[in-house]
Amino acid sequence: MNKTVAIDPPCAIRTTCPYCGVGCGVLATPDGANGMTIKGDPDHPANFGRLCSKGSALGETTSLDDRLLHPQVNGERASWDSALDLVAKKFRETIALHGPDSVAFYVSGQLLSEDYYVANKLMKGFIGSANIDTNSRLCMASTVAGHKRAFGTDTVPGLYADLEQADLIVLTGSNLAWCHPVLYQRIVAAKKARPQMQVVNIDPRRTATCDIADLHLALAPGSDVALFNRLLAEIQQQGALDAAFVADHVDGFEAALDAASSCDSSITGLSEAQIQQFCNMWISTGKVVTVFSQGVNQSNAGTDKVNAITNCHLATGRIGKPGMGPFSVTGQPNAMGGREVGGLANMLACHLDLENAEHRSAVKTFWEAPQMPEEAGLKAVDMFRAVGAGKIKALWVICTNPAVSMPDADAVRDAIAGCDFVVVSDLTADTDTAKLAHVILPATGWGEKDGTVTNSERCISRQRAVLPPPGEARHDWDILADVGRRMGFHAAFDYQSPAEIFREYAALSGIAGQLGRDFDISGLVEMSDDEFDNMIPLYWPVNAARAGGRFFGDGRFFTPSGRARMLPIHFRTALTQPTPEYPFRLNTGRVRDHWHTMTRTAKSPRLSQHLAEPFVELHPAEAEALGLKPADLARVTSPQGSALLRVLITDRIGRGQAFAPMHWTAQYASAGRVDALVAAITDPVSGQPASKSAVVQIEKYDAAWYGFAISTRAPDPRSPYWASARAPRGWRIELAGTETPEDWEAYARALLGTPDAQALSVQDPAKGAARIALVEDGALTGALFIARAPVPVSRSHLVHLIGGAPQDALAGRPAANRPDPGATICACFDVGVNTILTAITEQHLLSVDAIGEALNAGTNCGSCRPELAALLASTQVPAAAE
Ligand SMILES: Nc1nc2c(c(=O)[nH]1)N[C@H]1C(S)=C(S)[C@@H](COP(=O)(O)OP(=O)(O)OC[C@H]3O[C@@H](n4cnc5c(=O)[nH]c(N)nc54)[C@H](O)[C@@H]3O)O[C@H]1N2
Ligand SMILES: Nc1nc2c(c(=O)[nH]1)N[C@H]1C(S)=C(S)[C@@H](COP(=O)(O)OP(=O)(O)OC[C@H]3O[C@@H](n4cnc5c(=O)[nH]c(N)nc54)[C@H](O)[C@@H]3O)O[C@H]1N2
Ligand code: SF4
Ligand SMILES: [Mo]
C-alpha cells in the first residue's frame, strides 16, 4: 500500500485545520515555546497551499493561558483516577437506578473520528442507550435526512473539483466567502480562469459571497422550497427533464412535480423576472452545482429544502458527474466523519441504521456488545428538554458548548445547571457550559491530538500532534475508553492508540459494505501504525472494488430498490411569524474571523479586530423608525430571552429582518448570546433547530453613558453592557450603563485591575465626558474613555498603544499628521478601512490586486478580498453617478 509521504520541509508536521469542513491541509512547525508557525500544505487536495484568516492564525490559539491542565471535581483539582472513578460510578449508579436512558452524551463534529467512534460504541453498545447526539444535529441533520430520503444514504455525491468544473454554481443559504473561504477562493480562481462560469447567490442578506455573484436573489427568509419547486416545474415545462435517467433510476417524479407545480413562487418575494432569470440559467446550463448550507438546513423545513434541491438534480440527471450535483458543504472539520461513525442518535457507525434490525445485529455481533438500543435516542433539543425535566440525570458534554449554541439557550443553560451530574470535556474550564459542570476533564486540543477527520468531499485526512499534551490533558478517545473500562467493559475499550481504533472502524465498515452500505473503508483494515502515522489524504470508499470518486453518476442509489427518490415537497411557513409585539425576523450566523463560541479564535488578537463586539444588522429605514443611530445599542428581545447588541445599520439586509452573529458568549459580552433569543423549534424530519428564524422586538437601549477601554490585563467589567476582545498586548472593552458612577478614576482602576497605577485624566462632568490613562512604570497599562454618546475615539489607533508610551493616549486619535487606520479589514497585515479608502482614492486603485500591491491587504490568506471589492465598489459608484 503506497499511503505514505515524505515530510518537507523537514520539521514541519502535516496536519489538518480544525475549523471548517473545507478541511485544509496545514504545515505546522513548532516554535519550541508552545506556539508554531503555520503554512498551507501545498500537497493537500482541499486547499493546495491556501489558508484563510482563521487557519493562518492557528498559531495564535495554542497558548496555555486559559487551558485546563488537570481534572476538576466541584471546582477543586482532582486526580484522573478519582475524577474518572467518579464519572464511571455516577453513570453506573444512575443506570442501575433509572435505566440506561437516564444518561446521555452530547458530543461534537469537532471530535476526531476515533474519539467519536469510541463515544458511540460506549453509549450505544455498552451502556445500551441511544442517548448520544451531537452538535451536528444543529448543523447537518437536515442534509443527512434529505440525503437519506433521496439517495437511501447520507452521501455527498461530488468533489470540490466539481465546483471548478461547473459552468453555473448556485449557492443557497451559504456565506461561502466567510464560512468556507478556501473553497470560495477556489471558485474565484476558477471563475477568473473561465469567465463564462456564472454564480448565483440565494440569501436574504447581501453577504460578502455576493462579490462573485452574477445574480443575487434576496429571497424572503425561509422560502427556498418555493423557488426550487418553481425550478422543478420549469424543468418539466421547458423540456429539460432527463427522461431516461428518471425512468431508469428515479422514483416519485410525478408526485414531486405535482407538488412543485401547485407551489406559489411569489412567496419568495422575488420578481417574476428574477425567478425566470434564475430558472433559465439553471436549466440552460448542464454543468450546475447547487451548494447549500445553514440557510437551508437550519429551518423548520430544512429537510424539505434539501429535497427540493435534490429533486431538481435528479430530474435532470445532473448528479455525480463532473461539474454537476447537489453539494452540501459541511460546517465542522469532522461533521462528515461524525456522520460516518454514526454520531447522531438515530445512526450506527458506517452508515448503518440503528432502527434496522439487521444492521443493529451486525454491529452488536462485531462489538460483542451486551445490549443495543432498538430505537433512536433523544435528538439534541429533546435531550436538553429531558435534562431540564430531570429525566436525564447524568450528562457528559464533549467538545461543544450547548449553553451558548443550543436554541433557547437560557433554558438549556438552566437545564444543565439543574442536572444531577454533569461532566464536561473541554480545553478550558471557562466556557459557559464548563462552568456548570460537576466534573471538568481536560482534553487535548488541536495541535496535540492525533487521528482522522473527513471533509465535505469525503476526503479523510490526518490531524497530527505538533505539541505535547499540556499538563495532564488526555485525548478524548483515551478518556472515553478509560471510563468504559471503569464501567466494567475492559476488553471492548482496551485501546492503545488511534490507529487501533481506526483499524477496528475500517473492519466494521467492511461489514457495512457487505450489507450494501456505501461507507466502506475496509481497504485500510491492514494499515500498520506507521502507515496510519504517514497516511496521506484519501477519499472513501476504499475497498477491493473502488477508491474514492463520485457517487450516483451511474444511477445506482442505496435505497432498497436501488433507485433514487424524488419527494413531493410542499411549502411550509416558519412556525413563528412576526407579530406586532415581535415584528422582526431574526436571522443568525457567522462572521469571517470567529469560530462558534470563540473559545479559540478569541485568543487571537488578529482575529479579534475584524468584528470586536456582538452586533445586530438592521436596515436603515428600520433603524430610523426605531430612532437608532449608527453605533447605538439595542435591546433585542424574543419570547425566549433578550440580548444587548451594537447596531450595525446596513442595506445589506432587508426590511423587517435583523441579523446577529452566533458567536458571543457570557465570557466575552454581558448579553451577547443570541441563542437566548431563538425558539427551540425543529424540523419535523431531522430534528434540526430553525436557528435562522427567531422573532424579536428591537428597541434603543438608553444608556446614560458609553465607554471604551484598553488594558494590558483582562478586564473585570460589571456594567449592564460590556464586550471584551483581545488586542495586541492586551484587551479592548466596550462599555455602557444607565447609572453613572461617581468617580470615573476609581471605576477605571476597578475595571482594569490597576489600583496603584498613576492616573492622567481629563474630565468634563457637565458633558459627562472623561478620559483617563493609567500608567505603571512609565507604560500605558490602561485607558478609559467615557461619553454620553457612543465614544468617538479611534479604536484601531488606541489598541496599538497598549503597553506603550502613555503620551497622546488621552487624545484618543492619532495626531493630525498621522492618519487613523480605521477598523481592521485585512487581519493578516492589519490594514484598516480608512487606510484602504484613502489609498483607493489617492492612488486611483481600480482592483483588489492593485490594493494588494499598494498595501499588502488581501495578499496573504485572501479572506478579506470580498470586503476589499466592496470598498472599491463603494468608492466607484458615486464616481460613476457623477
Ligand atoms: N468564519 C467561520 N466559518 C465557519 C464557522 C464559523 O463559526 N466561523 N462555522 C462552520 C460551521 S460549523 C458551519 S455549519 C458553516 C456554516 O456556514 P454557512 O451556512 O455559510 O453560514 P451561516 O452564516 O450560518 O449561514 C449562511 C447564510 O444563510 C443565510 N440564510 C438565512 N436564512 C436563509 C433562508 O431562509 N434561505 C437562504 N437561502 N439563506 C438563508 C444567512 O443570511 C447566511 O448568510 O460554517 C463553517 N465555517
Ligand atoms: N443561533 C445559531 N445557533 C447556532 C448556529 C447558528 O447558525 N445560529 N449554528 C449551529 C452550528 S451549525 C453549530 S456546528 C454549533 C456549534 O456550536 P458549539 O459546538 O457549541 O461551538 P464551539 O465553540 O465550536 O464548541 C466547541 C467546544 O469544544 C472545545 N474543544 C475544542 N477542541 C476540543 C477537543 O479536541 N476536545 C474537547 N473535548 N473539547 C474541545 C472548545 O473549547 C469549545 O468549548 O452551533 C449551532 N448554533
Ligand atoms: S477554509 Fe479556513 S477555516 Fe476552513 S479549513 Fe481552510 S483554513 Fe481552516
Ligand atoms: Mo455547524
Can you tell me about this structure?
This is Assimilatory nitrate reductase (NADH) alpha subunit apoprotein. Its cofactor is Mo-bis(molybdopterin guanine dinucleotide); [4Fe-4S] cluster. The relative contact order is 0.12. The protein is globular. Helix 3 (113-127) packs across helix 20 (498-514) and helix 8 (224-237) crosses helix 11. It has six domains: 13-60, Phosphorylase Kinase, domain 1 (2-Layer Sandwich), CATH 3.30.200.210; 72-138 and 334-539, Rossmann fold (3-Layer(aba) Sandwich), CATH 3.40.50; 141-328, Dimethylsulfoxide Reductase, domain 2, CATH 3.40.228; 584-678, Barwin-like endoglucanases (Beta Barrel), CATH 2.40.40.20; 705-799, no CATH class; 824-875, Arc Repressor Mutant, subunit A (Orthogonal Bundle). By secondary structure, it is an alpha/beta fold. The protein starts with 12 loop residues before the first strand and ends with a helix. The chain binds ligand MGD (2 copies), iron/sulfur cluster and molybdenum atom.
Look up the CATH topology of the largest domain. Answer: Rossmann fold
- The computed structural class is alpha/beta
End-to-end Cα distance:
66 Å
- Please count the beta strands (DSSP E, at least 2 residues each): 36
Give a short account of the largest sheet. Answer: 7 strands, mixed
Number of helices: 28
CATH architecture grouping of the largest domain: 3-Layer(aba) Sandwich
The rough form would be described as: globular
Lateral strand order in the biggest sheet: 5-4-18-17-16-6-7
Strand content: 15-25%
Oligomer: single chain
